[in-house]
Write a structure and sequence with these properties.
binds S-adenosylmethionine; alpha/beta; 9 helices; Ribosomal RNA small subunit methyltransferase I; 19% strand; 5-stranded mixed beta sheet
Length: 249
Amino acid sequence: PGILYIVPTPIGNLGDISERACAVLAEVQVIAAEDTRHSGKLLSHLGIKNDLLALHEHNERDRSEALIKRLQAGESIALISDAGTPLISDPGYVLVGQCRRAGIKVVALPGACAITTALSASGLATDRFCFEGFLPAKPQQRRKRLQELLTETRTLVFYESPHRIVHTLEALHEVFGEQRGCVLGRELTKQFETYLTGTVAEVLQQVTADSNQQRGEMVLMLAGAEPAAHTELPTEALHCLKLLSQELP
Ligand code: SAM
């Protein structure tokens, strides 16, 4: 059988693709891409000519079976997404799962990923962290998820969209209080790469004061909870305490 290669592509700066990634993209029989038009541009920039087929969240289940057949017939396939590492808030989970169950070799190349890029420059603790992906879009569900994370002691990492950043920072302010450390990494590896750092209140202030800070791609990070302070109390109790303390003089 052939090999399924998981190939990271740049998250902005085109120089961030590896030599090995280029070699794999050139030598496989076909490249499965989230958006073939978008990836076609990257391949032509790299001077790589190869066949592309679409594998996105809406057709992944159907397409995976056909791809497994091709792999079993001896073809090798590269999986790429629009940016960064496939499967990290991107398609590929179904295909890789099916390959594993069918005994097909899966080889992942290391490369660009917004999580590690943002975290390594954040100044927040990196020894233990928790990637939460995108928060739910609906305010109530978003708040519920944040409340569940209130006592998490690991650094929290979220992907966030520019339309929701202000609402999310407001929700963080409400749930975590204004003192929690916060870093917003924006447009990483690109021309307007920015890190806003401070407390949740300070980052919220910077983002609301300048609408440019509400643009582009962003990774939001939050310091973990202080371990000792919260060990005995359940999240609900802490939340009640917080509400009560706001009412006290
Ligand atoms: N697979 C990608 C990766 O490895 O990071 C992530 C794909 S996810 C659909 C897209 C989200 O990743 C964006 O909404 C943003 O939160 C984050 N992201 C991607 N590129 C970024 C960049 N250059 N700067 C900041 N965040 C980025």
